[in-house]
Amino acid sequence: MTLTAHQPVYLPWLGLFHKIALSDLFCYFDIVQYQKKDYNNRNRIKTVSGELWLSVPVESKNHLKKNVSKILIVQDNWVKKHLKSIELNYKKTLFFDEYFPDLKSILINESKESLGQLNLKLLEYFMRCLNISTPIIKASDYKFDGKGSELVLDMCIKLNADKYIFGEQGRNYANTETFNKAGVEVCFQQYNHPIYKQKGRNFIPYMSIID
Q1: Are 17 and 10 in contact (CB under 8 A)?
Q2: Mean pLDDT for the chain overall
Q3: Exposure pattern of 9-40 as b/e (b: 16+ CB <10 Å)?
Q4: Residue 130, class by beta-carbon neighbours within 10 Å (0-12 exposed, 13-18 middle, 19+ buried)?
Q5: Is the separation of the CB atoms in 8 and 116 below 8 Å?
Q6: How far is CA 59 from the centre of its chain?
Q7: Which residue in 11, 37, 158, 185 could disulfide with 43, CB within 3.0 to 4.6 Å?
Q8: Rounded-to-integer distance, Cα 39 and Cα 179, Å
Q9: Is the pLDDT of residue 182 over 90?
Q10: For residue 59, with 0-12 CB atoms within 10 Å meaning exposed, 13-18 middle and 19 or more buried, which class applies?
Q11: Do 192 and 34 contact (CB within 8 A), yes or no?
């Protein structure tokens, strides 16, 4: 069984879905510590003048000591601002009318939940749009031990995985020797970002999936 995992991110990029599609099981790794100025609560969309960050405001009290699943969303008008930015920049695109109503519904209805729950609902929706049927489990429902590479290996063992797909950055910390000894094959994702039609003249990769 091929396993992969990733921390919760807001409006993920294409590469995450590529990694999930290659796997038999995806672990939504919602036990990682929240990171400020990371992709836990923000991502980028394309405008005619360049990239634009969309950030979800979160409760700041002790937030750097909490797991992403415990991070609460600030209840202000951020949803309205995000939807307006998305509509202004994508309303003339080919598939806007097909996807925007569902995206709008999720952002409105899930914005009162935790950041981890909002990101999970968005991930599940985008996977349906892409016809990716890989099952999802949440790390918070299990007890995985260790740190870094050891934590990933423990997850593989407890979930009976014989193959694990790391992202490109996994090369910086994965201890392949310990995986091999445990009978778990290690793979590193190789993703060639497609070039597609965008607004504006210059193509900018690594935008949110909605781009």
Answers
A1: no
A2: 93
A3: bbbbbbbbbbbbebbebbbbbbbbebeeeebb
A4: middle
A5: yes
A6: 20
A7: 11
A8: 28
A9: yes
A10: middle
A11: no
The amino acid at residue 153 is L
Under 8 Å between Cβ of 104 and 75: no
Percent of the chain with pLDDT over 70: 98
Q: Are strands 136-138 and 25-28 parallel, antiparallel or unpaired?
A: parallel
Q: How far is CA 182 from the centre of its chain?
A: 28
Q: What share of the chain is helix, strand, coil (3-state, %, to 5)?
A: 40, 20, 40
Please give the Cα distance from 179 to 172 (Å, whole number).
15
Closest CA to 8 of 58, 48, 79: 58
Asked if residues 46 and 158 have their Cβ atoms less than 8 Å apart, the reply is no
Residues across the chain: 211
Which residues are within 8 A (CB) of 76 and not within 5 positions of it... i.e. 6 or more apart? 57
Backbone angles phi, psi at 58, to 5 degrees: -125, 155
For residue 52, the one-letter residue type is L
**Angle formed by the axes of helices 14-21 and 115-129, nearest 10°:** 70
Closest CA to 79 of 49, 53, 48, 111: 111
Tens of pLDDT, residue by residue over 4-46, are: 999 999 999 999 999 999 999 999 999 988 888 899 999 999 9
Cβ neighbours around 163 below 10 Å, total? 18
CA 27 to chain centre: 11
